[in-house]
Amino acid sequence: MRSRAPRATATAREPERVERSSGGSGAVRAVSPVVSLAVPDLRIAKPLREALRRAADRVAALPAAVEQGTHADDLRFQLEALQAAISQAAAGETPLLERAAPAVPVQKVLNLLRASLVAELSSLREAVPAGDIISLMSAIEDVQLALDRDEAHRFASRLSGAGGLELIVEVAHDLRSPLASILFLAETLRKAQSGVVNPVQERQLGLIYSAAFGLSAMASDVIELARGGDRLVDTALVPFSVADLMRSVRDIVLPMAEEKGLTVRLTTPDADFRLGHPGALNRVLLNLTTNALKFTSEGHVELTAKQLSRTRLSFSVQDTGRGIPPEVMSCLFETFRRRRNAGEYTFSSAGLGLSICRKLVAAMGGALQVDTGAAAGTRFSFELDLATAPRL
What we know:
single chain, 5-stranded mixed beta sheet, 392 residues
């Protein structure tokens, strides 16, 4: 086990100075004392070692280098640890960075150290071979890479911990509000409500809308996944118009369809007003229609609701796309799908959404079915018992 390097000590210290603000109020602010760090035995050329030491002194004297709650001694120790890691990397060893405390902003300190070192190197009076300087800068990048890997490992550990799911849900919630604003503004501009839009701009706005809608749908899917994927927003049966619900789905996806040159067809039932769970039904139909548009390059997507009996309706989303490959069918409803490279997993927007769709349909009393073929496209369908309701 590596022993902890000795804490950096100040070999020269000036008294703490104060500066008066320019506002004339007489307020003062503290300025960190200038310190000279006891640099470890760096295995690099002496001019570069001295330049690195002076760069560390600069950073230690910067008030901006210490964040609230971080002690200056921890900063100095972090600087010494960074210098030692850079020296190890320059010697061809794997850089090992010890953290003084979790609160120390090590990435920020390394960036400041790198910037200060560049300034020091530019003012060197002694000639230093370019190859040595390149080796030193490469060593810093090696330390940066080691830090990046460490941060990724710590983030993955946090995700797999007790609060990992809550963190994902918080991020997804934070994404939805700005994405909703982007969707609204893109559609407003696309409809020329803010002025004339030329064809190129209209196409670009369609792309913006489609991309933002895809991200928004993914965020919603993640939140639903955290809730189990079968959460019915309407806990009690409520009256709703099937035709209005289907038209709202078409209106949302229309910019995506128009961007790809596709049409969205609707077939609504005769007995329109029903009792059911419109929130869940809307989510299922919207997800299925979005996926159909995503995997269809020409033709149309048809959204159909057909009355089978007085209370039973059949819903389907049919596309004229290329169909689903056989190797995908076996894991179509899996939340995670394995990449071709072993050991790598990915969130699949289609898989995640379809998994939730199947759970929501089951919660409403149905079963999601799929039929696909290379020449016939893909058709998702399900049946629900929905009692008739008086017209709203």
